[in-house]
Write a structure and sequence with these properties.
The complex is a heterodimer of chains A (604) and B (101). Chain A is of the alpha/beta class and 604 residues long. Chain A folds into three domains: 157 residues, Lambda Exonuclease, Chain A (Alpha-Beta Complex), CATH 3.90.320.10; 75 residues, Ribosomal Protein L15, Chain: K, domain 2; 241 residues, Four Helix Bundle (Hemerythrin (Met), subunit A) (Up-down Bundle), CATH 1.20.120.920. Chain A is 43% helix and 16% strand. Chain A contains 21 helices and 18 strands. In chain A, strands 1, 2, 3, 4, 5 and 6 form a six-stranded mixed sheet that branches. In chain A, α17 packs across α18 and α17 packs across α20. Chain A is elongated. Chain A starts with a helix and ends in a 13-residue tail after the last helix. With 101 residues, chain B is an alpha+beta fold. Chain B has one domain: Alpha-Beta Plaits, CATH 3.30.70.240. Helix content of chain B is 26%, strand content 30%. The chains are: A alpha/beta (604), B alpha+beta (101). At the A-B interface, α5, β7, β10 and α20 of A face α1, α2 and β5 of B. Chain A: Homodimer, forms a heterotetramer with a Cas2 homodimer. Chain A: Its EC number is 3.1.-.-. Chain A: It comes from Blastochloris viridis (Rhodopseudomonas viridis). Chain A: InterPro entries: Cas1 (IPR050646), CRISPR-assoc_Cas1 (IPR002729), CRISPR-assoc_Cas1_C (IPR042206), CRISPR-assoc_Cas1_N (IPR042211), CRISPR-assoc_prot_Cas4 (IPR013343), Dna2/Cas4_DUF83 (IPR022765), PDDEXK-like_dom_sf (IPR011604). Chain A: Belongs to the CRISPR-associated endonuclease Cas1 family.
Chain lengths: 604, 101
């Protein structure tokens, strides 16, 4: 090892055409990183040996790079991860390798030549190659070792016995074994479902591909570059990172191709709200148990909780917090009035790349204003849509009002400053809220308690304002967690100024959703008669919902989130809940400069 | 072979466990995946990933020679109308809805 360190000449100076690299690697004194036999006119340049604090590239990631470069960079360079049925099946297949005898692998010169030896779970690393690998099984026989990688599924019927990514992975494992001084002439893949073993021949070509891929991946990650998504590839369909990568959506901007199906949600879990004062949330077995005095305990499977929302004096035990942190499930802490205080856990990807780009956007005044213009326009258009869809007032009033709002939305494009935008937004909001009572059913309009004149807050003075304030707070929380999961910082806004305690980015992104999600959920709850005048208490100039009414209103909001909508840009049907996750991811793509603009949600 | 789709399916999981200690562990584990329906019977609604995790968790707990677990797939949770006749207490398919307490 040491001799090769001192003698490793820079790979850039390698001689094209040099071959016999397999021998080079098993031979300790040979020159540094093995070079493939380059074709005429092609110079094989590899990344230099790993620096002291540089992370080594895992063999598994080189497999992914060959499968899809973007996948490898998202996972390894950006700290993103998501599981699905295939990854779970893979873990299950791998369990077999964890059990059974695992004797230590003897030193290369101490390998027994008279018997075979089998061991499991070996970690190997080489700074010279910049590679590391976790080997499932190593078989030693007659002084030679064979790395065996366990794969779920069946053996593919292709000439090489297995697909290239898997062969490359085994090849990297073999190279690391050679680097450690072992004689390794072949690798193997074990396909757990069909119980078939495939021999992987270490050809010069395969070794060249493996080292080339390792080098490309390292250089791409070092350059902070994210490769473009695959184009309508069959590989995407079962990829677990589909909801994070958004291949069709990103390609839509590049080529105008239609995104055919919405990406699946990362998990089908849903939020759990606990807002009954005095409630206690504990962990029991694999569930969260909510204890409320005088009521039967409610158990909710931990896997089914996407986020735990605690409002007001509700307690949560430390074991429950630990388990939620372990599962990366965020806990949103809110006041009794649903003022967002902060979150525990749910920190999103293990990387600051997106946040760094977000701060750069926030510092770029022209880009910031361009975004704000489209944002305010989208908000005004959406409030217009809500008025148009739910109008129950006189027909004559409707037309001029809609025209006025359309005009205001168009004017945003010419706003020179954020202050001018604020003026347009305020004017539109005044028009919109003045017209809001025209959307109530006669039964609701007849109730004096539900009279609504203008929007007020801090504290809201009447029941309708109280409902709006509550739902806006809940909407802010929904977005705060969605943008944290996407790697963004909720506290740094683009349109809203930064103020302590204000999740400015969440407030930015919810603007277009206020009318279509929050206001419509309040309208739904009021018009359906889910809220009655005696569900509210007034005190000290403010109005509040009673606990039962809060529960009903939040349930109405969550129902609204489950309703489907057509994405205005991509044209597919998607639930509002997933739409929010997609929009948060797209915003992250936008701040990183991968897509030229953020497509606002403006339904027809 | 285990199903690998990521769409949610409804399942009935029934088990015979010969040892009370293991039975207790299986019961506790199953509470993380579904709703307890009857003695040693759970009703679950799972996507492909959780289904694989459940099978894997059960595999670790049981004694393959003495115990028996069956996982019955009732079909896609959203689309299928369950042909269930329930005598006595009522049977309700699990609906996906946010819990507000």
């Amino acid at each position: 090892m040491s001799s090769s360190d001192t003698r490793s000449d820079p790979p850039a100076g390698s001689v094209p055409g040099q071959d016999a690299l397999g021998q080079n690697l098993s031979d300790q004194g040979a020159a540094a990183p093995a070079r493939p036999a380059a074709r005429q006119g092609e110079l094989a340049l590899f990344a230099p040996p790993a620096a002291a604090d540089e992370m080594l590239t895992p063999a598994r990631m080189i497999n992914e790079w060959v499968y899809c470069p973007r996948l490898a960079v998202l996972e390894w360079g950006r700290g993103e991860w998501a599981g699905n049925a295939d990854t779970a099946a893979g873990r299950r297949a791998h369990k077999a390798t964890e059990t059974g005898a695992a004797p230590a692998l003897p030193e290369p010169d101490a390998l027994p030549d008279d018997r075979t030896l089998k061991t499991r779970r070996l970690l190997l690393a080489s700074e010279r190659l910049g590679l590391t690998a976790e080997l499932d099984v190593i078989e030693a026989d007659d002084g030679r070792v064979v790395p065996v990688d366990i794969k779920t599924g069946k053996r593919p019927h292709v000439a090489e016995g297995a697909y290239l990514p898997e062969r490359v992975q085994v090849c990297v494992q073999a190279l690391l074994l050679r680097e450690a001084g072992y004689t390794c002439e072949e690798g193997a893949l074990w396909f757990a479902d069909s119980r078939e073993r495939v021999r992987v021949e270490l050809t010069d070509e395969l070794i060249a591909t493996a080292l080339g891929a390792a080098s490309d991946l390292r250089l791409t990650v070092a350059a902070g570059r994210l490769p473009p998504p695959l184009d309508h590839s069959q590989k995407c369909v079962r990829c677990s990172l589909l909801p994070i990568c958004l291949p069709d959506e990103v390609n839509w901007f590049r080529k105008g191709a239609i995104a055919r199906t919405p990406p699946p949600a990362a998990t089908p879990a849903l939020p759990l709200y606990v807002q009954t004062p005095g409630a206690r949330v504990t962990k029991k077995d694999f569930t969260l148990v909510v204890q409320v005095e005088g009521e039967a305990d409610r158990a909710v499977a931990l896997d089914e909780v996407s986020e735990l929302v605690l409002a007001g004096p509700v307690s949560l035990t430390t074991p429950a917090v630990h388990e939620l942190l372990r599962r990366d499930v965020p806990v949103a802490w809110m006041s009794s009035g649903f003022w967002y205080l902060g979150s525990t856990g749910g920190q999103g990807p293990r990387s600051a790349t997106v946040r760094t780009a977000q701060y750069a956007l926030a510092a770029d005044e022209p880009r910031r204003l361009a975004f704000a213009r489209e944002l305010v326009a989208a908000k005004i258009r959406n409030s217009r849509t809500i008025l148009r869809r739910n109008w129950r007032g006189e027909d004559g009033e409707r037309g001029p009002l809609l025209d006025r709002l359309a005009l205001l939305a168009d004017r945003t494009a010419r706003a020179e400053t954020a202050a001018a935008l604020l003026g347009l937004e305020g004017e539109a909001a005044a028009l919109y809220f003045r017209a809001l009572p025209k959307l109530f059913t006669d039964a609701v309009a007849a109730l004096p308690a539900f009279a609504f004149e203008r929007r007020n807050r801090r504290p809201p003075a009447d029941p309708v304002n109280a409902c709006l304030s509550l739902i806006y707070a809940v909407l802010t929380r929904t977005f705060s967690s969605a943008i944290s999961v996407a790697g963004l910082d909720p506290w740094k806004g683009v349109y809203h100024a930064e103020r302590p305690g204000r999740p400015a980015l969440a407030l930015d992104l919810i603007e277009p959703f206020r009318p279509v999600l929050a206001d419509s959920a309040v309208l739904m709850a009021l018009n359906n008669g889910e809220l009655a005048p005696d569900d509210f208490v007034s005190a000290a100039g403010g109005c509040n919902l009673k606990p039962k009414a809060r529960r009903a209103l939040i349930a109405a909001y969550e129902r609204r989130l489950d309703q489907e909508t057509t994405h205005p840009a991509f044209g597919y049907q998607v639930s509002m809940r997933r739409l929010i996750q997609i929009q948060a991811r797209l915003f992250a793509r936008f701040v990183c400069g991968e897509i030229p603009r953020y497509p606002h949600y403006v339904p027809r | 072979m285990a199903r690998r789709s990521n769409a949610e399916h409804a399942y009935v999981v029934a088990y015979d466990i010969s040892d009370p200690k293991r039975w207790r562990r299986v019961f506790k584990t199953m509470k993380g995946y579904g709703r307890w329906l009857q003695l040693s019977v759970f009703h679950c609604r799972l996507d492909g990933g959780r289904r694989a995790e459940m099978a894997s968790a059960l595999e670790d707990l049981i004694d393959r020679d003495a115990d028996h677990v069956i996982i019955l797939d009732l079909g896609p949770a959203e689309d299928v109308e369950f042909a269930v006749e329930s005598l006595g207490k009522s049977f309700q398919p699990i609906e996906r809805r946010a819990v507000v307490i």
